[in-house]
Design brief:
The complex is a heterodimer of chains A (278) and B (171). With 278 residues, chain A is α+β, with helices and mostly antiparallel strands. Chain A is built from five helices and twelve strands. Helices cover 27% and strands 31% of the residues of chain A. In chain A, the strands form two sheets. Chain A has a six-stranded antiparallel β-barrel with strand order 1-2-5-4-3-12. A six-stranded antiparallel barrel of chain A has the order 6-7-8-11-10-9. Chain A is globular, with a radius of gyration of 23 Å. In chain B, helix 3 runs antiparallel to helix 4. The chains are: A alpha+beta (278), B mainly alpha (171).
Chain lengths: 278, 171
């Protein structure tokens, strides 16, 4: 026993080194494998609060561009709302409209921190579980998709960006209706372009065609514009083609995002679980 | 070492703040990063308790991780640097009487020998960091390019920081 302690003491530096190294490697691997279910991430209250304070100052720098973007999206919403439609038929009175039931609620959030230059990029937003944000919710920007919520604290949430090596979002070509998976080609860290994979060889691809989200994705609402087709080329190994997509959204100047709460997600999920169990 | 703790606490704080607020936002060619916070480990006095050095390196690494969404890869890169630093110190400073305690900065070593000392440790740090970040060997060549480029840039910044902020005591 005495010898054991002596041995331990003699090697205490190396043992401490091993301990710390294994601890940090575990944290790093968990972080990669489970999409940050650990506590070391920027939605943590310490770093979240710090980024909040910094953002308060730095958000003044580009107010002009932000206002222009917001005004644009406001104009779009106005054109689509009842406000801009002329009522042609006055014979009916609306009592209780059961034809439409609200499915999506948009929660506006400010971007506190984001990166575009890593292999795995994350975004921190200033809304958290107190605002009803949960893991797996979709996040979009004013003109494109941003990512999926993958970690929440009381007041902040972190988003697994489209620019992440494990992000794969089902998308559709608007004209030919073919479905593929949107993946970030991170070899050259080009944050304006993504690849749409698994498009069959028979699909006719038009340059400049819009890429939108699919209706049958469980995360994103259908029909949200993502980007436009730049070119198509044969995939390396399989009988399909890859389409290079130029994203509408410039992640580098992203500062506002909308988190989408799907009010019917529970119903859809419970159905799927039911069928899986059968 | 004890009497110098406040000084090193200040250096720790300033380096973390500058890394998080300034250097994390600098990237050349959209993928070369600079990590001058490693200077904290390089500049610890030569006689500092080695267990303490390991713990401090772990602390600064995990703090940077917390702010840059990287799990534990900075900590995993910093701990080995602190572990082998004393060997590198001994070999690089072999000309001097090694029993003296000294602060291994650019003035003590002179520029050329300092670049050897910091360069070896920096390559180690950046190699672990970027290979852990890539997490697969599929990015091998882009990772090697990243390591080389970032090492050069970080070295430049580290030397500049010392020339600007540390007074030369030997003059």
């Amino acid at each position: 026993m005495k010898n054991l302690f002596a041995l331990l003491y003699k090697n205490h530096l190396f043992l401490l080194f091993l301990l710390l190294e294994i601890l940090s490697l575990t944290l790093a691997i968990q972080h990669n494998a489970f999409q940050r279910s650990t506590f070391i991430h920027s939605a943590h209250s310490i770093s979240g609060n710090t980024y909040d304070v910094i953002n308060n100052f730095s958000s003044y720098m580009d107010l002009k561009e932000k206002n222009a973007l917001l005004a644009d999206s406001l104009a779009k919403v106005r054109t689509q709302s009842m406000f801009s439609f002329l009522k042609r038929d006055t014979n009916f009175t609306k009592i209780n409209d059961t034809l439409y039931q609200q499915q999506y609620v948009f929660v506006s959030a400010e971007v506190l921190h984001l990166t575009t230059h890593k292999i795995n990029n994350y975004i921190t937003l200033n809304k958290g579980s107190h605002d009803g944000i949960k893991n797996g919710m979709a996040v979009i920007g004013t003109n494109g998709i941003v990512g999926v919520v993958n970690g929440t604290t009381d007041n902040y949430c972190s988003v697994l960006s489209v620019l992440h090596s494990q992000s794969s979002i089902p998308c559709r070509l608007k004209k030919s209706k073919n479905i593929g998976f949107l993946i970030w080609n991170n070899r050259d860290f080009d944050y304006r372009h993504c690849l749409l994979k698994d498009i069959p060889l028979t699909a006719k691809i038009a340059k400049g065609d819009t890429v939108v989200t699919t209706e049958n994705s469980n995360i994103f609402p259908g029909g949200i514009p993502v980007g436009k087709v730049v070119e198509a080329h044969l995939a390396d190994e399989s009988q399909s083609q890859d389409v290079t997509v130029e994203l509408f959204l410039d992640y580098n100047i992203l500062d506002h995002a909308f988190i989408i709460r799907d009010l019917m997600k529970d119903q859809k999920d419970s159905l799927q679980i039911k069928f899986q169990n059968d | 070492m004890i009497e110098q703790l406040p000084r090193y606490a200040l250096i720790f704080f300033l380096l973390v703040v500058s890394q998080v607020l300034v250097f994390n936002n600098i990237y050349v060619g959209n993928f070369l990063n600079v990590f001058p916070y490693v200077l904290f480990i390089f500049i610890l006095p030569s006689n500092a308790n080695r267990a303490l050095q390991l713990v401090l390196a772990f602390l600064i690494g995990i703090t940077i991780d917390l702010f840059s969404d990287s799990g534990g890869i900075h900590a995993a890169a910093c701990v080995p640097v602190a572990y082998i630093r004393s060997f590198i110190l001994r070999t690089t400073a072999s000309g001097e009487s090694t029993n003296d305690t000294f602060v291994p900065d650019v003035y003590y070593f002179g520029l050329r020998r300092y670049l050897t000392y910091a360069g070896i440790l920096m390559v180690l740090h950046h190699s672990i960091l970027f290979f852990l970040e890539a997490f697969e060997l599929g990015h091998f060549f882009s990772t090697i390019l990243k390591i080389a480029g970032s090492t050069l840039m970080t070295l430049t910044f580290i030397v500049l920081i010392q020339y600007i902020f540390i007074k030369n005591k030997e003059k």
